[in-house]
Amino acid sequence: MTVPSIPLAGVIGAPVAHSRSPRLHGHWLRAYGLPGHYVPLEIAAEDFEAAVRTLPKLGFVGVNVTIPYKEKMLEIADVVSDRATRIGAVNTVIFRADGKIHADNTDGYGFIENLRQGAPGWDAAAGPAVVFGAGGAARAVIASLLELGAPEIRLTNRTRLRADALKNEFGSRVRVVEWVQAGNVLDDAALVVNSTSLGMAGKAELRVPLDGLRKGTVVTDLVYTPLQTRFLRVAAEQGCTCVDGLGMLIHQAVPGFERWFGKRPEVDEATRAAIL
Ligand code: NAP
């Protein structure tokens, strides 16, 4: 008699101790009574490739990838999804039964699903989006908004060169706005996104003037510690529809969980409570 193997998954990075993913996947495994384990795996740079190639032999069906390996994983993968190629980074890996390493990026998906759940009726094509920040997270935000037909993305970043580089990559619908002018391009925006790390506990506040925000504009912050950032608080006071960043973190995990453990999990209040 063969003993059925218990699927293993995890998050690989350095460091990984701060990751909320083990709590999230652990919650879903328990909620659905599924066999499986999800563990944090800190891997040193010099061991990274060897470790990734060993994981399937140890029973791992896939992993999430976090800093600093999101780009490096692209080089190791045998198959890369279109959206991971567009974003230029990997956050979800599937170790396929045929031995191939399949790399995907679900950050843009998580970003969009979070908006759909938190701001029902929101439509990317309805008007310009303003994006603060031009780092890794901004790439996923921009790629997903363009894919859904956003007519214009006003991209603003402290380091102008990084915003220019994204414009060169993503094309003419991206317009770079000087960081000091960011407050001047909000009034007709359908969506305003903070994808900088400003406002995170322990970091400086986002100080872009927000009086241009209008009632009904959808405003979202990728920062989720704290859940209610100053940016979201000010936006709410001005009548905006606010969506916090925790939902993005949860939604981006859905496709991986489904592929690894065979059940599409729900994103509900119990899920949020489990990882807070
Ligand atoms: P990143 O690649 O390091 O980019 C950081 C961004 O923040 C850059 O645009 C940077 O501008 C800007 N920034 C940092 N300090 C600044 C300051 N003092 N003044 C002005 N701008 C500043 O980081 P990332 O991976 O894009 O992540 C950004 C944030 O999103 C983080 O807080 C992360 O936790 C969050 N995030 C959340 C989710 C989620 O699921 N909710 C997913 C991904 C990321 P410069 O280019 O000028 O340095």
Mind explaining what this structure looks like?
The protein is α/β, with parallel strands linked by helices. It folds into two domains: 8-105 and 249-275, Rossmann fold (3-Layer(aba) Sandwich); 108-244, NAD(P)-binding Rossmann-like Domain (Rossmann fold). Helix content is 34%, strand content 18%. The protein contains ten helices and twelve strands. It has helices at 21-31, 48-54, 72-76, 82-87, 107-118, 136-147, 160-170, 230-237, 246-261, 269-275; strands spanning 8-13, 37-42, 60-65, 79-80, 92-95, 101-104, 129-132, 153-156, 174-177, 191-194, 218-221, 241-243. The strands form two sheets. Strands 2-1-3-5-6-4 form a six-stranded mixed beta sheet. A six-stranded parallel beta sheet has the order 9-8-7-10-11-12, sandwiched between helices. β1, α1 and β2 form a beta-alpha-beta unit. α1 crosses α9 and α5 packs across α6 (136-147). The longest helix has 16 residues, at 246-261. The protein is globular. The chain starts with 7 loop residues before the first strand and ends with a helix. The protein binds NADP nicotinamide-adenine-dinucleotide phosphate. Residues 107, 110, 133-138, 157-159, 162, 195-198, 200, 204, 222-224, 245, 248-249, 252 line the site of NADP nicotinamide-adenine-dinucleotide phosphate.
